[in-house]
Amino acid sequence: MIVTRPHGGADWAMSEAPPARACLYLDFDNVFSLLHQQDEALSHAFATTPLRWRDWLCGPRTRRRMLALRCYMNPGGWVETRPDGPFAEMGQHPRVYFSRFRGAFTEAGFEVVDCPRLTRGKNAADVRMVIDVLDAIAGEVPPDDVILATSDSDFLPLLHRLRARDRRCLLLAHPALASAMRESADQVIALDEFAAGAFGWRENKDKGFVQPDPMAEDPTSIARLREMVARSGRLHLPALGKLATERLGISLRDSDYFGTGSLEALVLAAGLRRIPGEGGGWVEVAEEG
């Protein structure tokens, strides 16, 4: 469930105003562990394809200009994995260490901040995040929006400080987030809504999170693919598959071309047109009419 609070503005993502300056601060250990408890495949998607959910959370459609993307991670942290799960296919069994995902986040434009464990069961991520947020809002170019990806209630005083400084705060957090945290933020995106919006997963009371059928036609992803091609102007065809995997987390072949059955059918469904050339040619948005 997405909840929007009145203070600090309404749903600024839909505003016609200039893009808001924003910073994203991710408590990786907290969010990854919560997703892993729900479904191992969901935590795998989150950790290995950060570009996909980053675009959903703070991409062009949200009208935000990102000033900072920071991922706070304990490189020595780990979770147990299933022998038949997606991490085992990466050779990460019986444990996967968080440092394994550093490269994916770096390639997605995040600054990865190492936060090793200082005492038993506790690292310094929350302290580093608070210091960085306070530095940002006191800087020469302060953000309008601060996105905090954490469910840790230790951040409550920071939410109060953000409100006092007239900064909007979006929380990405567990559905059972403490009421005081929820009421102190401008907007809350629960992890179940995040899984549905960013990855197309749905929660099932009997099965937990359920992946979308990769062979079913996916109009939402097709529309997003068209938007990405439109932003590129003209895209080399081999790059189309790479873009779909990085930004949407979907393989063209494995998804049967987003459920359309063929590359030609996908190009048609997305309103694109092919231009002959080397290496398979190019694609661009077809002119209407």
Folded structure, characterized:
- The chain is α/β, with parallel strands linked by helices and 289 residues long.
- It folds into two domains: 2-210, Rossmann fold (3-Layer(aba) Sandwich); 219-285.
- It is built from twelve helices and 16 strands.
- The longest helix is centred in the C-terminal third of the chain and has 14 residues, at 219-232.
- The model is unreliable at 1-15 (pLDDT under 50).
**Biggest sheet descriptor:** 7 strands, mixed
Work out the number of β strands.
Answer: 16
In percent, how much strand structure appears in the residues? 15-25%
Inertia-based shape: globular
CATH class of the largest domain: Alpha Beta
Give me the number of helical elements. Answer: 12
| Gyration radius, rounded | 20 Å
Overall number of domains: 2
Sequence stretches where pLDDT stays below 50 over 5 or more residues:
1-15
* Through-space gap between termini: 39 Å
Please tell me the CATH architecture of the largest domain by its name. Answer: 3-Layer(aba) Sandwich
Proportion of residues in helical segments: 25-40%
The helix-and-strand class reads alpha/beta
In short:
With 289 residues, this protein is α/β, with parallel strands linked by helices.
What are the salient characteristics of this protein?
289 residues; alpha/beta; Rossmann fold
List the helices and strands and how they pair.
Layout: E1 2-4, E2 20-27, H1 28-38, H2 40-48, H3 50-58, E3 64-73, E4 78-80, H4 86-89, E5 95-97, H5 102-107, E6 111-114, E7 117-119, E8 122-123, H6 125-137, E9 145-149, H7 156-164, E10 168-173, H8 179-184, E11 187-190, H9 191-199, E12 202-204, E13 208-210, H10 219-232, E14 235-236, H11 237-248, H12 263-269, E15 272-275, E16 282-285
Parallel strand pairs: 2-3, 2-9, 3-6, 9-10, 10-11
Antiparallel strand pairs: 1-11, 4-5, 7-8, 12-13, 14-16, 15-16
